Structure formats: C-alpha cells, structure tokens
Give the backbone structure.
Amino acid sequence: MADASQPHVLDSLDKSLAAWASEAGAPGYRVAQVRKWLFEKRAVDWAAMSDLPKALRSDLAERFRLWSAQVARHTHADDGTEKLLLSLADGGQIECVLLRDRDHERRTICISTQVGCGMGCVFCASGLDGVDRNLTAGEIVEQMLQLQRLLPPDERLSHIVVMGMGEPLANLDHLLLALDEARRDDGLGISARRITISTVGLPPAIDRLARHEANYRLAISLHAPNDELRNQLVPVNKNIGLAAIMAAADRYFEASGRRLTFEYVLLADINDRPEHARQLARLLAEREALLNVIPYNPVAGLPYQTPTPDRRLAFRAILEQAGIRVKFRHRKGNRIDAACGQLRRSQQPLPLVEL
Ligand code: SAH
C-alpha cells in the first residue's frame, strides 16, 4: 500500500533505484527493467513488474511509494481532450490534461508545476488564491505517467506543454529534473523541441534556462503590448517590465536557436483594441517569433469576456498586415473547464469579485 511516509520513487528516480540495487544486491540491469516498467509498460504498481523476482518487488514496495497522487476526477470532452484532477499526498489539488490532435497525430499533455500560482494574473483561475507550494519533481513526472496511461498501449505521448497550474520558471529545478525523464530514451523519449515551457516572463530564470543543455521551446505570456496595461493584467510585471522580458527572450532565442512563441489572451474591451494590435505588431516586428492569440475561456466569478468574432478578426487583420506570424487558437476541451485552474476551482466556492 502507498504510504505517505515512504519516499516517492519518482522524485529522484536514478538515485533511488541505484541505492536500492546496491543495497538489495540486485544486478544493474534490474534498474533498467524497472524504468521500462514505469515509462514503457505503464505498470500500475510494483507487483505488476512481473519479470522481477518477487523478493525484489516486495523490497521495492517496502522502500518506496510509486505514486503520490490520486485521481480525484477524470473528465472527457467530445474532441478527445481528457483532464485529470489529482489530489496530492498533502491534500493539495492540481490539474493536468491530455489533448489529442488527430489531424497531426499529436498527443500532447499539459502539466502543472505548482499548487496554485503566485503570479496573480487577474483573469486566470489558478492564481486566485495565490500559491501553496512548488510541486516536487516526482509529482511532475507522475502527471506525465498518469496521462500516458489514458492512451491505448500502441499510442505514445508526442508533446508536452508546461501550461498548467503555476509558474514553471518559479519551480525551475524540479521542472528540469522532471523534463530530463521526459527526454531520456529510457524515459518518455520526447525530444526537447517537442516540449514547450510557458512563462509569465521571469528574466533571471529565462537566462538559467538558456544555459541548460536542452533547448526547450519557450512561450512568453504577454497579454498586453505596453507596461501600463500589463501591470494591470499581470501584476508581477510591475517589478519586471516588458523591456527586460523582451531582452531575456532575445537572449533565449540567441542561445537556443528556437523560435519564440508569445501568448496573448484576448479580453473583450481590455486588450483587444486596434491600437493594442498596432503596439503589439511593433513590439514583435523583426523578432523571430510566433504570436499565439488565445480566446479567453471565461472563469466563473471573474468579469472578463471573450471578444466578439468581429473584434477578433479586426485584431488579427492588423497583425497580419504588419507581417506578424500569428495563430488564433481555439481552446480545446472548453466544456470540461480545461483552462488552467478551472477544474480545481469548480469544486470550491466562487470568489466575490468587484466589477
Ligand atoms: N504561468 C505560466 C503558465 C500559465 S497557463 C504563464 O503565465 O505562461 C498558460 C497560458 O494560459 C498563459 O498564457 C495564461 O495566461 C493563459 N490563461 C490562463 N487562464 C486563462 C483563461 N481563462 N483563458 C485563456 N487563457 C488563460
């Protein structure tokens, strides 16, 4: 049985398994077998690892928890999107999502890095109550494995987006450890160019990421083309500012060679005016970048709305005329509250928000 006092094996898998193998007197290839069971054969528990001697399986079970979370809710949308609400060992809750794109044969997972979020973006459900804590590396890897298990055995995960609950660059150590497991051949085997980290824009952490050996794709959540508006929508911007973020983004592009993505959640009558589109075009001009415009997914209790189709088209036309590479996204899984933080939120009383 899982016991919360046992170490979670996924937290530092290599170290845990190496220590186990040496203390149990198990030959090195047993470690490779365990890894195979975890990442490839999708074992549900230690007992399932049937090509390991029983004594070794019970030894593992006595030392380590394999899972630290429980599925509290599992929702499906008509478009194939599935979402898990996970309850962690300390009662905290996080969300993660499997998105299927049948046209492009993609199976993308969206994972969380924190319980709650400390960035305070005014339109987002995840940050309404601030941040409780960082997830451990094991809790991040566990989301990947839980979501992989939703696929039929002959299908593999192809992409990861770190766009769930929390600010990934505020938990970079644990995230990088978890993504190492995602990339490894004896892990999930997903290469760095298929992994996107989305951030509100924390320059020192962007620079750290630029020095990391793996070149992940970086997405920066802009949501406003000037500091005055961004300070209102993304409060941490007050201490950072767009100029510093754009400079860090440019350094990341230099170091990684990966084209940058900028995200812009379109909020009716707030950041969707023609002048905003023009400013945004100026900000992004001459940058090797893709702009992802995301229609707002309304959050119960918050006063923000999705712009009308006319407004969206007008916004888009200005950017396209200015030669900006732009994609207007459709939200997948709307009906299952797939925007980050929404499912967890729907189980809690709604906040009162002043309009
Ligand atoms: N902290 C990271 C990851 C957040 S989630 C970041 O800021 O990038 C990924 C994206 O979804 C962010 O751009 C975020 O601002 C956006 N988002 C949050 N709530 C949303 C909502 N209700 N509708 C549409 N996009 C939302």
About this structure: The mean pLDDT is 92. DSSP finds eleven helices and twelve strands in the chain.
